[in-house]
Amino acid sequence: MALPWDFRPLHGPRVALELLRDDDLEALYAMQSDPEVCRYLLYEARSREKVGEVLAVDAGATRLENPGDYVQPAIRDEDGHFAGTMYFHLTSVDDRTAEIGWILAPSSRGRGYATEAARVLLDLAFGELGLHRVYAELDPRNAASVALCERLGMRHEGHFIEHMWLKGEWTDTGIFAILEREWAARRDG
Ligand SMILES: CC(C)(COP(=O)(O)OP(=O)(O)OC[C@H]1O[C@@H](n2cnc3c(N)ncnc32)[C@H](O)[C@@H]1OP(=O)(O)O)[C@@H](O)C(=O)NCCC(=O)NCCS
């Protein structure tokens, strides 16, 4: 496994994944303060101050080496505009496992940018990083996120019922995952 891995910009056919920058604040704030965007996220809509704090922390998360390390790059479209963010979290080194996540600004949805950005990270995960398994956790009511997992070829592995008290209600969690050999078979097929 090629760890540690230090972040460098990554590219898909149309999207680029780059570290967040200070001048992303307005776009990031617009996205993370939108209750509709946050509907199925673990956090509530954020204040500008909170988004500024999070941006600084996430922009400095640049190395994958130990369990818990993550990167949270911006997704930029063909014109270099902020389209959203990806999340890639090394959850286990021993088990060579990572978690993946995604958020798009509403105006950037419906064009396949999240699918493309996720493919870039799965290629990295199973190529250069030599990981074995990548999974996503989501609220099963989040149909757009479920559809994205399915587009990527992730298997529905689990459904925990009311295991989490979140935003005033008991909430289910769905688990989707893909293994290195499954990703390779999709690529070759
Ligand atoms: C989850 C989320 C990222 C999915 O966004 P999305 O736009 O549906 O996903 P993609 O960028 O992959 O785009 C796929 C859509 O674009 C269409 N599309 C157009 N061109 C495409 C292309 N070249 N490749 C793939 N899809 C394309 C697809 O048909 C699909 O549209 P459909 O849903 O009408 O079938 C988005 O809904 C979101 O940010 N939600 C709020 C945050 C959130 O809940 N995050 C997940 C937490 S688990």
Structure in words:
With 189 residues, the protein is an alpha+beta fold. It has one domain (9-188): Aminopeptidase, CATH 3.40.630.30. It is 30% helix and 33% strand. The protein has 6 helices and 11 strands. The strands form 2 sheets. Strands 2, 3, 5, 6, 7, 8, 9, 10 and 11 form a 9-stranded mixed beta sheet that branches. Strand 6 (74-76) and strand 7 form a beta hairpin. Helix 1 crosses helix 3 (48-59). The longest helix has 14 residues, at 113-126. The mean pLDDT is 97. The structure holds coenzyme A.
A few lines on this structure:
This protein is α+β, with helices and mostly antiparallel strands and 189 residues long. The chain contains six helices and eleven strands. The longest helix is centred in the middle third of the chain and has 14 residues.
